[in-house]
Amino acid sequence: MGGSGKTTLLTQISKRFRETADGVQIIIWIVVSSDLRVEKIRDDIAEKLGLRGEAWNQKEERHKVNDIHTHMEDKKFVLLLDDIWKKVDLTEIGVPFPTSENGCKVVFTTRSREVCGHMGVDDPMEVQCLTDNEAWDLFEKKVGPLTLKSHPSIPAQARKVAEKCCGLPLALNVIGETMSCKRTIQEWDLAVQVLNSYAADFSGMEDRILPILKYSYDNLKSEHIKSCFLYCSLFP
């Protein structure tokens, strides 16, 4: 699901490769998103490889594909594709297919198990929401000890606020940051009240949390399914 930490995990994978190398000569990170445009991915990869310049823009598509393939075919690479919503055809881009022989890797994040199937992944790793203890640890870290110790009743209210995030790292981060400067019990009481009654009014919800969650809703396949989703949200 959106906000569960897929991009954060991909960042850590990228960082690990950069630190340990392990014979990897090329590490490329591309953000794909729902409006998959092959030419943009191709241009982004060319930029990372140092192939993109004035001459690149004048080339035909087949020549661009060939240039990327030629540059990568004899090198060990890791291609990280963040947030894909449909199958990304590597041959269409020019990226050589990763095999156990060449040691190359393609790692991607997606919200769709169906996409994993189309990409040939038999056993995808699901990034799940945090457990109650993990969620509290993250929220506690974001809020900070000074705020939590500023009133004896705040820790209990803080746990109620953290519970409302349902283990979603995005919500825990944003709401935790928002509450880190709230050092009166009245402010925490209000936060619990708002999250219980109309969470969309909570600071940071409209601009940082809801758009990411809405992205999944917008990509539901039909108006009928969207109506069913809204109905289940109102009457769980």
From TrEMBL:
The keyword Kinase does not apply. GO terms for biological process: defense response. It comes from the Eukaryota. Residues 1-147 form the NB-ARC domain. The keyword Cell wall biogenesis/degradation does not apply. InterPro entries: Apaf_helical, Disease_R_plants, NB-ARC, P-loop_NTPase. Keywords: Plant defense. GO terms for molecular function: ADP binding. This is Disease resistance-like protein.
